[in-house]
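User:
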Amino acid sequence: MPFLILDRVLIAEYNAIFFLLLLISIMTGNLNRPIRVLVAKVGLDGHDRGARIIATSLRDAGMEVIYTGLRQTPEMVVNAALQEDVDAIGISILSGAHMTVFPKIMYLMKEKGLNDVLVTGGGIIPDDDMKILNEMGVGKLFQPGTNTQQIVSYITDWVKENRIF
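Assistant: Predicted structure:
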């Protein structure tokens, strides 16, 4: 049986094809599974049309989307993210509670060791608050009316640069 020798490792011919495809995938930045995104509405905010539009856009872009529904607590969101092994969490917030919700989620994520998961989101968030949240480790935040392709591109680029799978 022919063998391929790479860096002192013998790989049988039937495994060589898989190995080369994996190597090409790693080198070109292709992911070997869909990006997994959890989309959540935290607190008493009952307006979820935007979150559903974003979830649909992410799904249409080939991502696997877990939509938690309305009235989630930060604990519920982080626990779901951990259980679902997500690459990103998207929080939709229109209630004005962003300066409470995002820091709580970041704290809980660090507590549970979710250091390589993107936290992003959108809603009615003033620019000054966005800067403070970004300094806390929250990713880019999007205003209402943002083109959904920008959100898809941001998540895709972040995951390719920061997650290994």
